[in-house]
Design brief:
Helices cover about 15% and strands about 40% of the residues. The protein is of the alpha+beta class.
Length: about 170
């Protein structure tokens, strides 16, 4: 038996999907349109920052203290290191949110330093204050959230929003 790849433009494929009255030239256009839609959709997902690594900005996050008592205050320290020729906008400012099941509450917005051009200073981290819930159970815990920031190319004129997932582990003690 000799098997060959299916012909995507054959009438059998279009009949299977309920498309029977389109001339061959229309079928070619329909297939090209579908391909363009798939490519654009994947590109738009990439622009939205749905992946967990950014090739233009190196990211790190840590807690100022890894063992905290219920009701204690701490800071999350974010380090964003842009690649050469990239800057991180201070306007709109980076924003951090915790997931709805968090054992902590954020206090204010992230503090940051700006450089001479008004962008986020490359050598100064962002600091986000938080308070651990007074009823947090003792033992290991985690903080999950998302840091949203905008970065731009200095030479090519484009800017992108990025949604950086964040997960930090800590210990709740007494």
């Amino acid at each position: 038996m000799n098997l060959k790849e299916p012909d995507l433009l054959s009438d059998r494929v279009f009949v299977h999907y309920g498309v029977t009255n389109i001339p061959s030239a229309g079928k070619v256009l329909l297939m090209k349109s579908a391909l363009v839609a798939i490519i654009l959709s994947s590109h738009l997902l990439a622009i939205a920052g749905d992946s967990s690594s950014n090739e233009y900005v190196r990211f790190d996050a840590r807690l100022s203290k890894v063992t905290l008592a219920p009701g204690a205050r701490a800071k999350i320290i974010f380090t964003l290191t842009p690649a050469e020729g990239i800057h991180i906008n201070a306007e709109p400012p980076p924003a951090f949110t915790l997931d709805s099941m968090s054992i902590a509450t954020l206090v204010g917005a992230p503090s940051m330093e700006k450089d001479k051009r008004g962008y986020l200073a490359k050598d100064a981290p962002l600091r986000q204050s938080l308070v651990i819930a007074k009823n947090a159970a003792t033992g290991p815990g985690s903080l999950r959230g998302e840091l949203v920031y905008y970065y731009c190319s200095d030479t090519q004129g484009w800017c992108m929003r990025y949604r950086q997932p964040v997960e930090l582990t800590l210990t709740i003690g007494r």
